[in-house]
Specification:
single chain; 8 helices; Rossmann fold; Arc Repressor Mutant, subunit A; alpha/beta; 39% helix; five-stranded antiparallel beta sheet
């Protein structure tokens, strides 16, 4: 998945974010000051930075100017509308106020990563998935998928070999405001298995959710 840099001086929060995002498949680097963050960005490739604003040596707004093009999300206790506007106008991709729901953090991170992800086509065996056009093919023939079916498929592919809860899949396909039963995910997963002939690949994880389990790596590439 992606390499994330978490810049947060509160050790407990930093470790919680790193542990949670690592479980979803990301590599997480941690920094407790702005200076540490700058050194890490200069030393290695970072796909996304998560920035606190109240850092001991510089504030997050100043740090944003030194990220060298790395996209960033503010994760901060500062909820004032002026700070939000300053952060977003200054180039942040998103602004999350503490305390936050951990599932929301995961989803917002994934939204930004998808925005910057260059790969548009996924191929595995006889199946090809075209992300920009929301289309899937098997043996060259288009598979007719409902919008939610395609969004579920995309979430499974982008998190392949990682278990996703029903709640995560529901949020990915229907959005945070959807108030329907999580069992609707089960119905749509069954349809996906049948349409793609992926009964052996989309695994049920008992009492948790589902995982797209691939024996070999699928290919992500530019369209």
């Amino acid at each position: 998945m992606a390499t994330l840099l978490i810049v947060e001086d509160d050790k407990t929060i930093n470790e919680l974010m790193a542990r949670t995002l690592s479980v979803t498949g990301h590599q997480c680097l941690t920094a407790y000051t702005g200076s540490e963050a700058v050194s890490m960005i200069q030393a290695q490739k970072v796909d996304l930075a998560l920035l606190d604003i109240n850092l001991p040596d510089m504030d997050g707004f100043c740090l944003m100017e030194r990220l060298e093009g790395v996209p960033a999300i503010y994760v901060t206790a500062r909820s004032d509308i002026g700070d939000r506007i300053r952060g977003l106008d200054g180039g942040a991709e998103d602004y999350i106020v503490k305390p936050f729901h951990i599932q929301e953090l995961i989803s917002r991170v994934n939204v930004v990563l998808r925005r910057y992800k260059r790969e548009d086509i996924f191929c595995y065996g006889q199946v090809k998935v075209d992300f920009p056009n929301s289309k899937a093919y098997r043996n060259g023939e288009e598979i007719i998928l409902a919008k939610q079916e395609f969004e579920l498929l995309k979430a499974l592919i982008l998190n392949k070999n990682i278990t996703l809860t029903r709640e995560q899949l529901l949020n990915a396909a229907w959005g945070w405001e959807y108030e329907g039963d999580e069992r609707t995910v089960d119905v749509h997963i069954q349809r996906l298995r049948k349409k793609l002939h992926w009964k052996n690949y989309i695994k049920t994880v008992y009492k948790i959710g589902y995982r797209l389990e691939l024996e070999q790596e699928g290919r992500l590439m530019d369209s």
